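Assemble and predict.
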Amino acid sequence: MEERINPRVSFYSRLKKRVFLFRSPWIDILQYTLLVLVIIWFLAVGTSNLGYKWDWYRIPQYIFKNVDGHLVAGSLIEGLLFTFKISGVSLVFAIVIGLGTALGRLSDSFMTQAITRIYLEVIRNTPLVVQMYLVYFVIGPIIGLDRFPSAVLALSLFEGSYMSEIFRAGIVSLHKGQLEASHALGLSTFDTYRDVILPQAIRRISPPLAGEVISLIKNSSLVSLVSLTDLTMQARVVSADTFLTFEVWFTTAAMYLAITVTLSVIVKRMEKKFRILT
Amino acid sequence: MIQKELGEVIITIKDVSKTFPGGIQAVKNFSAEVYRREVVVIMGPSGSGKSTLLRCINGLEALDHGEIVVDGIPLDDDKRNRLEIRKEVGMVFQSFNLFPHMTVLDNVNLAQIRVRKKTKEEASEVSKELLRKVGISDKANNFPAQLSGGQQQRVAIARALAMKPKVLLFDEPTSALDPEMINEVLDVMKNLAREGMTMIVVTHEMGFAREVCSHVIFMDDGEIVETGTVEHFWENPQEERTKQFLSKIL
């Protein structure tokens, strides 16, 4: 069938239509395989020029070890579990801080607005590494925080500031009629947010929020700077011990990628499931 | 027009003014009284302050000046009074404002559960009865987006009724509807009026006004231009501005 080009139909909708009509998934798989092959070829050529000797067979022991017939987590997996733990704990605090800050910025109180605004500007305009050191070396000792809590504090303060902007955007993007209808029904502010505003806002912001969660996991690699044994720290140790620099860092990158990609897929699924009809 | 006994005064509006931050004075020195079981229609060109006045009555807009008393409760800075008034005054909006993430039944249930502290079962029973009353009991488990505009507005009326309000405010309830859906909403409103619900309705539906309304207020530029019975407006409006306006909508 001949397809005529209508200039009023947007480029993207035409593109989507084409994909929908003519593309089999095998084409994507073929393209992807080709791309991977090209990258491997480049690496092979590059490393042979460097004279690098690949020793992949030595990597698995750092993932899983066989101790007396039992499979035990190797140091990279141990690091990965720690990364999960610190990211998870920081995520909970980041969400609380983010939501609190967003509501604070939307409140009528001048003081609350000012405090949240200052927090945002300070956190977003200084590097996370500096904040990490400040919390660990200065604030931590003052208020008696251990290494783990101070890293959590630094991470969640940092991510909380970015999350708060996402929460705020989600809340203000709702039609103000939703707020008015809730008020008119006599719902309290708390009930309005819990039952009407947040359930809708969170559905809208789930893509950028997922992006922030991913960025939190990636930023958690900075806790290795304060000597916490997360995935990055373990990788550094293993690569220093074995000189398997290429193999270790490729493996580490792949592990991070595996978590973040899985997370993206889960969020996409949830988005579809909880979509609101409009 | 239907005849019925009016009760005592339920809403007193005294000398109310409202100016928006841009300097536009939406309502100027507005005073009126509404009696129990009365249906008041407010008419006027767009921008004349009708909606703002309505929104002032249930505290969606803060007053600059004047006072409003609803069923003995003064609308003032006391948050509890505002909340009390909102429980007694229901509101139906031009754009329905249903909660899109909840089913029709949950929309009607929500305030009963949260504000009147009913259990879900008790609330659902009342809600189903109300949905039957507005003629959409078969859509209870649908989401608002699956309903036509007229159906959505009827759900919105049921939702407002669920709080058993003493007064219902309607802000241009049929203006966003396709013409063939206007009557299904007006019929529900007429039934409410016949049952003795106190209503303040911003609308230009003269047919509705003639059938159930006892009192018409014509506003322009934030002020009352003329008030009277429907017959008065229908047969001999006094003010030039009123005549001009009526000649355009009739």
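Chain A is about 75% helix and 5% strand.
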